[in-house]
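Exercise 7b. Backbone tokens:
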């Protein structure tokens, strides 16, 4: 009988020490009860708590990266929709005035116009080539930024994308990058970090 009492008091002492230890480590009575009698529910609640803590830690970075990706996509769309604006060509000779000129003057006037037109075309070709180089440079810069931001956000939380994000955004995939769809519900969830969402 004393043997049984001894074991019982040992078990009680052990349980008391364990409970005290858990209480000191931050577990409340409810958590202790769940841990002992409903371990699966306790584990689920712990997972939710960890997810919420992780969300709160990552929130500033997630918000900043989502804003940067949206800005990159807008910049890319803006660059892709810009069109070249040529300089106005030289005006042709005025027929009304030409009637008043002598045939020689008309011929000289026409030669001047042809020379101006040829010069304008050559300058225009140079201007267009410079515009294309500048546009390609800007597009490449934005694509590089977008690639970095997408890669960082995907490593941080791949759930924020509706589709698999490309590993690298290049010219061949510019349209895909532009159409890269962020999962709106997931973005809101990980930007707000409300406990009810976890």
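Sequence design result:
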């Amino acid at each position: 009988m004393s043997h049984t009492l001894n074991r019982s008091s040992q078990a009680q002492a052990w349980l008391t020490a364990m409970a005290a230890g858990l209480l000191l480590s931050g577990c409340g009575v409810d958590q202790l009860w769940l841990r002992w009698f409903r371990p699966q529910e306790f584990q689920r609640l712990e997972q939710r708590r960890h997810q919420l803590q992780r969300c709160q830690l990552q929130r500033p970075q997630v918000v900043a990266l989502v804003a940067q990706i949206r800005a990159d996509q807008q910049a890319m769309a803006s660059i892709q929709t810009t069109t070249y604006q040529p300089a106005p060509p030289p005006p042709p000779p005025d027929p009304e005035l030409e009637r008043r000129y002598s045939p020689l003057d008309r011929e000289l006037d026409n030669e001047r116009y042809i020379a101006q037109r040829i010069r304008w075309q050559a300058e225009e070709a140079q201007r267009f080539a410079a515009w294309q180089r500048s546009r390609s440079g800007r597009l490449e810069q934005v694509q590089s930024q977008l690639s970095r931001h997408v890669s960082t956000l995907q490593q941080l939380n791949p759930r924020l994308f509706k589709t698999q994000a490309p590993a690298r955004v290049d010219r061949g995939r510019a349209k895909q990058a532009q159409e890269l769809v962020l999962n709106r519900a997931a973005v809101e969830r990980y930007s707000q970090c409300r406990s009810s969402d976890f």
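Instructor comment: Residues 103-156 form the longest helix (54 residues). The radius of gyration is 36 Å.
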